[in-house]
Every structure is written in structure tokens, then in C-alpha cells.
Amino acid sequence: MDICPSCGAELTGRTLQESSPAEPPEVGRRTRRELRRCGSCRHLAWRAEGARHASQPWSDGGVDPDYDSLFDFTLEPLPAPWFLVPAHPGRATLEAELRAEVSEGHPLHGKPVIAVARCERCDEVLFSVEEDPVRFVRVHLTWKQGPDTPPWPMTEPVPLPLYKGLTEHTHEHS
Ligand SMILES: [Zn+2]
Ligand SMILES: [Zn+2]
Questions:
Q1: Considering just the CA atoms, what is the radius of gyration of the chain in Å?
Q2: How far is the CA of 51 from the centre of ligand 2 (A)?
Q3: 64-76 confidence digits (pLDDT tens)
Q4: Distance 11 CA to ligand 1 centre (A)
Q5: Which ligand minimizes its atom distance to the CA of 169?
Q6: Which residues are bridge partners to 84 per DSSP?
Q7: 165 phi and psi, to 5 degrees?
Q8: How far is the CA of 115 from the centre of ligand 1 (A)?
Q9: Which long-range contacts (CB under 8 A, 24 or more apart) does 67-70 make?
Q10: Within a 13 Å sphere around the CA of 39, how many CA atoms are in the beta-carbon half?
């Protein structure tokens, strides 16, 4: 269980990966942090990326309103035929399939993602990429259940606002 270092409440909600685009990838990887916000005391909590596997505790990051927009974000209604992916079942399957398909060199390789929505017509999936700043991509999963060759699975950025970005999507794969 992840515990808030400030007040002892359980940390729930999204985990962001904080990265600096100015840093070369090999440096960034070493210094990247995971960031969460406590729902009770609103303090930020952070730890080095990968600490999850070592079950290391979170460090108190204090209160920083600059980060609130990243955590307070709520999803606006989506245009048909997009529908939100339910947490159970659905999300985990799509996220696992994406992780299985992207190989080194793919823009989503090693990125923390959440499966948000799915297009009923062409079966593309909308993922949020849990980085600072959060961004959204459409992915046409190949369902090979194994690694594909970049640029597959085909991935397109979805410009914000999401409603507009998804309305302009043309289902070109169907
Ligand atoms: Zn707290
Ligand atoms: Zn579509």
C-alpha cells in the first residue's frame, strides 16, 4: 500500500512520471520521478522511478498549486462513436496489449499509460500518457500479442481539447 508521507492516508489516483524534455534520455531516465498527490492533505509525494519494485516509501513534496491542474483534470464528454473504457474489465487488457506491442524506438515504449476510451467504429484506443504534462494519443493496436516493429502500432497525438481532437479523427483504418 502506498502511504502519504505527510498525513499517513493511502495514496490513490494517478501516478505521473515527471520528466524534463531538456535532458538527454539517458540522464532523464536516471533522474525521473514518480509523482502523486494525496487526496487528504493535497501534499505531493514523490519517489524515484522504479522505486515501486523495491517498495520504497514516498517522500513528501509539500503543497505545490502548479501541479494541481495535472491531478484535477477530469474527462470531458467524448464524441460518438468514442466510449469510455470501464476500469474493470477493459483498461488493464488494453494497457497490457499496448505494452506487449511497443518495442524500443516506439514513442510509447516504457511510458506509463492509461486506456481512456475506445472508438466503436475503427477500434482505436485513446490513451493518456502519464507524464508531466499529460498528453493523449490514439493507437491502432494490432493485437499481435507480441512486439511489433515501430512505427507500429500506429500512434497519433490527439490535440486538446479532446472533444475536438477526436471529432476530427477519420477512422481511416476501418
Ligand atoms: Zn496526505
Ligand atoms: Zn475511429
A1: 17
A2: 37
A3: 888 887 787 777 7
A4: 8
A5: 2
A6: 117
A7: -60, -35
A8: 27
A9: 67/35, 67/37, 67/132, 68/37, 70/16, 70/132, 70/133, 70/134
A10: 8
User: Could you say which ligand is closest to the alpha carbon of residue 7?
Assistant: 1
Write out the E strands in the chain.
16-18, 33-37, 44-48, 59-60, 82-84, 113-119, 125-129, 135-139, 155-157
For residue 163, the CA-to-ligand 2 centroid distance in Å is 13
Mean pLDDT across 2-29? 75
Q: Which one of the ligands is nearest to 79 CA?
A: 2
For the entire predicted model, the pTM comes to: 0.77
Lowest-confidence range among 20-24, 62-66, 78-82? 20-24
Query: What value does the mean pLDDT of the chain take?
Result: 86
CA–CA separation, 66 and 80 (whole Å): 33
φ, ψ of residue 154 in degrees (nearest 5): -60, 130
In this predicted structure, what is the pLDDT of residue 72?
77
